[in-house]
Design goal:
The chain is mainly beta. It has one domain (3-191). Helices cover 11% and strands 39% of the residues. It has 3 helices and 13 strands, in the order E-E-E-E-E-H-E-E-E-E-H-E-E-E-H-E. The strands form 3 sheets. The chain has a 6-stranded mixed β-sheet with strand order 2-3-6-7-5-4. A 5-stranded mixed β-sheet has the order 8-11-12-1-13. Strand 2 and strand 3 (33-47) form a beta hairpin. The protein binds zinc ion.
Amino acid sequence: MKYYYVTHDEKYAQAYYEFEDGAEKKCPKCGKICEFSRIGVYHTRLKGKKQGDFYHAPGCYIGNSKFLEMLVKYNITGYEIKDIVVDGWFDQRDNLIDLDSSDLKEIAILGKCGWYADKDGKEIKRCDKCGIINFSTRKEVKGIKVEEDTWDGSDIFSFSNWLGVMICTERLKEACEKEKIKNIRFIPLEEFTFA
Ligand SMILES: [Zn+2]
């Protein structure tokens, strides 16, 4: 099975973080944030005139009605749809522009997988309690993989030591290609680097 890191394409409008309220839990061993539960809705702002079907802001993946309909049509699993608040759509000079954001929703990740592993089976230094890997160590990682016995089988999921980051199966990638979804990009996990 092939898996992908999901991101956006720089050529389209970008979604930015405005604010979100939430409760975070810190790992008792390393002190890093190992859990975050949002309270209320995510607030974003969009910048750029070229509309896509998909956007990625820090901590939030966003789709328009075309994207959401595709998820249903292709029986994609592992997500739930949530409302978001768009605090404005701006051009590159920060002038408000009149683009419709009323159909944009959050695609919240429900699917789960255990800790990511090095693609060649090399051991990665990490917290043995929460599995989180230091930024400096991450930069040395060249390609990661899914340990399939820890994966719940969802098309959309995230690693339990890489919070809120969307990973997907070939099925989502193929659906997006067939439907010509704009502003989504897939990086094979074995080629992914943090650098
Ligand atoms: Zn930890």
